[in-house]
From TrEMBL:
GO terms for cellular component: outer membrane-bounded periplasmic space. This is Calcineurin-like phosphoesterase domain-containing protein. Belongs to the 5'-nucleotidase family. Keywords: Hydrolase, Nucleotide-binding, Signal. One of its GO terms (biological process) is nucleotide catabolic process. The keyword Membrane does not apply. It comes from Niallia alba.
């Protein structure tokens, strides 16, 4: 009788433990799951058009200017508490103000470039370089970047060691970043999101600025580079990988090989989750537009991956809204919406401003603008700008 009782007790305990284990497992799954709304913001191809001023027409404008898109950044951050802000290159060359800065010795020693004085107000998380960053030479570029309060990354620019072996090539910039971002989930729970950021640039830059690259730097294929580095980023714990790509949807016409050196090819790299791009001064997505195979303007996807391109000179702000879900310890993109938000609207063929310029930027740039206009009066600049 006693033996029978012990057998029944043992069976009961086993059943209880199995049921309890399943209950704990179910509860763990519930606890593990989490939903986060994350907004990713992009500026690109500012070209030092920092103020809403048309230098050619010598008057203010509502059509472009970093001081205007900065106000959109402020609005976008207020609308969503979890945000990241990135720039995709071509900051320090293009406008008469940029030419004035490059001609002034003080910017090689003591002063911060006015572009970074402006951008430092906005809280950028990271940026990558564009081809025009190299126009004034490497010394000017490196000295200028020291004024940025945010890190730069690029993976496919290497030091030219001229030894013929790729295996020992050294990156010129930090090839990728891992940003620890504390985010608030929908139920108020704090989550840590490890965001990987990789920068890439069109290799034609090496041809366009030969005098600054020769025997110093080389640029490798974008896709091949990304495919080599993304696995390492994953290995180091990246939950979400964002590619900052200074290249267009299509490869530059004058460059060969074209394969692997455009955004469509980068979108096919396994492990890249989101693409912010620039260079071609285009806008993506465009409402009502139909793209080539794999390009979905309606959903803002390129080969199934959220992407955005924010025009140029501060005329648009790129916005990607992600819904992230954590399942079994891994974050996945459950939904996304991409928007290139303009600073103006066209109503009955009339251009209407929808945002005011940011006064703080106007204030800190007033001296530089005055000096730029004086500089213009002594130089024939407008015929020499990109």
């Amino acid at each position: 009788m006693k033996k029978k009782f012990l057998i029944i007790l043992s069976v009961t305990l086993i059943l209880f433990m199995q049921i309890n284990a399943k209950h704990i497992e179910a509860n763990s799954a519930i606890v593990d799951e989490s939903t986060v709304k994350l907004r990713i913001l992009e500026t690109t191809d500012i070209h030092s058009y920092l103020l809403d001023y048309n230098y050619e027409k010598k008057k203010k404008t509502i059509e472009f200017g970093y001081n205007r898109v900065a106000s959109l950044i402020v609005q976008a951050k207020k609308e969503q508490r979890n945000t990241l802000l990135f720039d995709v290159g071509d900051v320090i060359k293009g406008s008469p103000l940029a030419e004035y800065v490059a001609s002034s010795p003080m910017f090689y020693s003591t002063d911060i470039h006015p572009a970074y004085k402006s951008m430092n107000l906005m809280g950028y998380d990271a940026a990558t370089v564009g081809n025009h960053e190299f126009n004034f030479g490497l010394d000017f570029l490196l000295n200028t970047l020291m004024g940025a309060d945010f890190p730069y990354t690029n993976a496919n620019i290497y030091v030219d060691d001229r030894n013929g072996y790729e295996q020992d090539d050294i990156h010129f910039f930090q090839p990728y970043l891992l940003l620890d971002k504390m985010v608030v989930a929908e139920k108020g729970k704090m989550e840590n999101l490890k965001v990987g950021v990789i920068g890439l640039i069109t290799p034609i830059t090496q041809e366009w600025d030969k005098e600054h690259f020769k025997d110093k730097l080389i640029i490798k294929n974008m896709r091949k580079t990304a495919e080599e580095i993304i696995p390492q980023m994953k290995k180091e714990g990246a939950d979400l990988i964002i590619a900052l790509v200074h290249a267009g949807l299509y490869s530059d016409q004058d460059y060969w090989p074209k394969s692997g050196n455009n955004v469509r090819d980068i979108s096919k790299v396994e492990g890249i989750d989101v693409i912010l791009y620039g260079h071609s001064h285009g806008i993506f997505p465009v409402k009502g537009e139909k793209g080539p195979k794999g390009v979905n303007h309606e959903k803002g996807l390129i080969n199934g991956k959220p992407a955005v391109q924010a025009g140029n000179w501060g005329n648009h702000l790129g916005i990607i809204d992600l819904t992230l879900r954590k399942k079994k310890g891994k974050w996945v993109i459950a939904d996304s919406k991409s928007t290139a938000k303009p600073i103006i609207r066209i109503i009955k063929k009339k251009k209407i401003s929808i945002v005011s310029p940011m006064p703080q930027i106007e204030y800190i740039l007033s001296r530089y603008q005055h000096d730029t206009l004086e500089y213009m009066n002594s130089k024939d600049l407008l015929n020499h700008l990109d």
